[in-house]
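Task: encode each sequence below as structure tokens.

Item 1
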Amino acid sequence: MTEHDRLVCERLTKSYRSGFRLGPLTMEVATGVTCLVGPNGAGKSTFFRLAAGVDRPSSGSIGVVAETGGAGLGYLPQEPKLPNSATCEEFLHHVAWLQRVPRRDRAGAASHALDQVGLSDRRNARIGTLSGGMRRRLGIAHALVHDPLVLLLDEPTVGLDPRQRIALREAVAAVSRNRIVIVSTHLVEDVRGLADRVVILGEGQVAYDGDVASLEAHATDDAPGDTDLERAIAVLMTGASE
């Protein structure tokens, strides 16, 4: 994995009978954490489903350009389904098998994934006994077990308490080194704590693409929010919806 590895969108579109259309989007996402921000219905989950190959584009393309020769993609949907009766280690062994990790490497891959998200001490715990925050971290481990170049995390902190959100953000930051990580979120503290880059979507179009410091410059005094970052996001999302 190198800084030249990237996820590339070329005039990507997805249209629905409801009238909603994502795109056209043309952009490249490089290593580090990119936060995808926008109101409900802006197209965040649609983008993730296209990137993960769950849905096909109506036109254009999206794919990974990997100069290192490695690739692979890990996807944590907004509401992952985890088998409550399995242990964490059993579950990750099964996922490693599904991802075609060689038999000799599966135990090590499962252990490494658990270590990366801070769940090594819960390897033998039944998933049904885990807290909400631990289940989310296990979901990230499930997306990581085959060591993908691209990691897609759809609203990973939703429904967590403040302490759980901090632990999850720390786990995401730890696994983002030399990896392309895209995180969709509604939460300003996620953007502040994670983002190397921010992409704001509004009604299927890009309303902003840049770093946090440049984003804050869009804040206005009359916009809702307690910080420049909150106000700037409010301004751009409102403008995109007009």
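Item 2
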Amino acid sequence: MSSCSWPGRNLTMQQYHDNEWCVPSHDDAYIFEMLTLEGAQSGLSWSIVLAKREGYQKAFQHFNIEYCSKLTDEELETIKEQYNIIKNRTKINAVRSNALAVINIQKEFGSFSTFLWNYVDDHPVINNWVSEGQMPAQSPLSEQISKDLKKRGFKFVGPVIIYSFMQAIGMVDDHLRTCPYHSTNR
């Protein structure tokens, strides 16, 4: 069996691929972390973001949604200056606005997970790609979720970001069919 090639020889990328990518998660803090990291990636490579993941975890108290929702402008500026994260102010401010939007969804649906997983009737979309070139950058479902999240006040949630996010939290399994980590091979 041949694994997905996108992690290359980067150990951090390989570990992410093997242990997290396309693995279903229903943990709101983890889901919020992935939404934040995918948004931070916009315009950058995933390896850069993963290299800064620990900085993000420290800066945002392991993506404690309540904590993130209450951050002041001054605290966000301090985070920008003192932590090893992407220094884009708009992306950093999105952590707070997205946390507030998540809290509103939690009040309405019970959890962010429930809201998101309703889009796939609680079952991941399992694709059977034979080459990485077959994987789309976005899908009609990522377009719909993106539109719905934007209406709810989320930032950095375009359809391409959301497709990657869906992979990150396991709503979509895009491991190659020949990859030992594909759902049917586990």
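Check on item 2: DSSP finds ten helices and two strands in the chain. The mean pLDDT is 97.
End of task.
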